[in-house]
Design a protein that fits this description.
- The chain contains 13 helices and 11 strands.
- By secondary structure, it is an alpha/beta fold.
- It is globular.
């Protein structure tokens, strides 16, 4: 099997699997108890929090564990401090964010996305004001891989909405590229365990602002509104983060080479009516881990299923929206026509090799020819 859908979920390595089993066997007590084993587990969890925050931000910030990225986004937006005023975001954020905003705040302003996938900064300026409580913009987009300039976006926020908090969905960035936590003055960032080779879970990294800190402390201790995340999963999450950071430079370099190889091979594929494969995002503006491309006049969903029959696993977009009957809302926002927006494929890399790319290209050529 050639697995090229790593932006959706990554394979758990034997090292992490073995660590999880051992950790489950030795860390089964409830961390909220008052006996010594509960205390020991609490200390290990605190160390895990410090480790994850340090890896992502080079600082010791607040960390709150949840079961998923969806839960994480809902918990952030649910904070009463964001229920008044307006929230500014984009049309291409994760569907869970839009769902959360609809539930807790009906005063939302949508920033336009430019044809190259980046935020329209002039439009952002127009939407921000002193009543803006939260700005939520991704760092690396899960479908296109485009990288937003969070530092420049922050400068605009601080000029036009000085009281707003800044949330960036960094799930596709964490342990892969640097997150500009300090220079972009982020208040919230995210990391998902299943994107970095761990089984499950998500962590919210938050600035230790008094209001924000009290909110997360109360969620657990006062309101008991969040379920208990297993200590073993938290500790394994931290271990996977540690391993990913240790190997990040080498993996990044290898991935850049694979990205270039894939783009070159895709560019050489001959399509009917002399059309060519389109890359919506230039490789210099995108994460090397995500390659989004349009094969004009070929339905992406059909190609995904045909490749799957050959044990080549790719995606037609974000996993959460893979079965939608609508064209890609991301490509549509970038002004691609409906037909092209139905034709976008995503290949996402993590510990892949040249043979994986060669097999993909080999089978894709045949499928296109027989389409």
């Amino acid at each position: 099997m050639v697995y090229l859908d790593n932006a959706a979920s990554t394979k758990v390595s034997p090292l992490i699997s073995n660590f999880l089993i051992e950790t489950y066997n030795n860390n089964f007590a409830n961390q909220e108890g008052i006996h010594k084993e509960a205390y020991n587990i609490r200390q290990r969890i605190l160390q895990a929090e410090k480790s994850i925050s340090q890896s992502l931000t080079n600082e010791e910030n607040g960390v709150f564990f949840t079961s998923s990225g969806t839960d994480a986004l809902h918990l952030i937006v649910k904070n009463p401090m964001f229920n008044s005023g307006n929230i500014v975001t984009t049309a291409v954020e994760h569907s869970a964010l839009h769902s959360a905003i609809r539930m807790y705040n009906d005063n939302v302003r949508i920033v336009r996305i430019k044809n190259n996938g980046t935020v329209d900064l002039e439009h952002l300026e127009q939407l921000l004001d002193k009543e803006t409580t939260l700005v939520a913009i991704h760092h690396i987009h899960s479908e296109t891989g485009v990288i937003q300039d969070l530092i420049l976006i922050n400068k605009i926020i601080r000029k036009f909405a000085i009281n707003a908090k800044f949330l960036s969905d960094t799930i596709q960035s964490a342990c892969k590229v640097n997150i500009p936590w300090k220079s972009a003055q982020l208040d919230f960032a995210l990391i998902a365990a299943h994107k970095i080779g761990a089984p499950a879970g998500c962590a919210i990294i938050y600035k230790k602002d008094k209001q924000i800190t009290n909110y997360f402390v109360n969620l657990r201790k006062k309101y008991h509104s969040v379920g208990r995340v297993e200590p073993a999963l938290i500790l394994t999450f931290a271990k996977a983060c540690e391993e990913a950071e240790k190997n990040r430079a080498v993996l990044y370099s290898d991935t850049v080479k694979l990205n270039s190889l894939l783009r070159q091979n895709l560019s050489e594929i001959k399509l009917s009516n002399n059309s060519k494969i389109i890359f919506p995002i230039d490789k210099n503006s995108a994460s090397p881990y995500i390659i989004n491309f349009i094969i004009p006049n070929y339905q992406a969903a059909i190609l995904v299923r045909a490749l799957s029959e050959k044990n080549i696993l790719v995606s037609s977009g974000s996993a959460c929206e893979a079965e939608t009957k609508e064209p890609s809302r991301v490509l549509t926002a970038m002004k691609y026509n409906k037909q092209d927006a139905f034709s976008g494929l995503r290949v996402s890399l993590w510990n892949n090799n040249e043979q994986d790319i060669e097999e993909l290209i080999e089978h894709l050529k045949v499928i296109i020819k027989e389409y």
